[in-house]
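Whether sequence alone determines local backbone shape is best considered at the level of individual chains. For completeness, the protein is quoted in full, as a sequence line and a line of structure tokens:
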Amino acid sequence: MTAAKELKLSDQDSLVAAAVARLDSVDRAAITAALRMQVLRLSSEALSKHGDAALCGVVIDTAYADRVVSLAAMRDGSASWYVSNGLGCVGCGEHDGVRAAASALVRRAESASDAAAPTDDYARPAAGSVRFFFLTPVGLRLAEAPLDAVVRGDSLLAQLYGVGQRLLQLAERVGAGRSVQNEIERALAERPVATR
């Protein structure tokens, strides 16, 4: 996969197909976990496609008792979301309004990323927590807060969380993107018979 393809979350259909091809069995939760990891592990070369931007993207992981919802947004307006139970939506940034909101989320995240610490910890948060991953050309940065604090607070992270929630609501309201489940089914149908 080229760096340009690797960067575009709007080209997630090929990323879903790649994730399906790597797995021996179809575990939808493993596929959405792999898609999340592909975003978090974008190379500095892929991130440099955003020019001299200090912040190229953000992933917000919100952990509820029974699932983690991961929202990924890039400076170019690409956006997708993944749920730890195998649900999700890819290519949401193909909708003009969602693309603008995703880009605005990344711009808003710039101020919060300064307070985040460099990390190589890609783990999802524990239930009741929110992890904010900031994708920069020089590495991944992380900030974490309790879910109730970001829902009720007015800190930079709380404000960022609110912008992210509005992006998710917009994507759902306008029907942006493609269902991860449908993309998995399509990728499975295209797999050679010997690997099914």
User: Anything to note?
Assistant: Residues 3-195 form one domain. Strands lie at 57-63, 68-74, 79-83, 88-90, 117-118, 129-136, 139-146, 178-179. The longest helix spans residues 156-174.
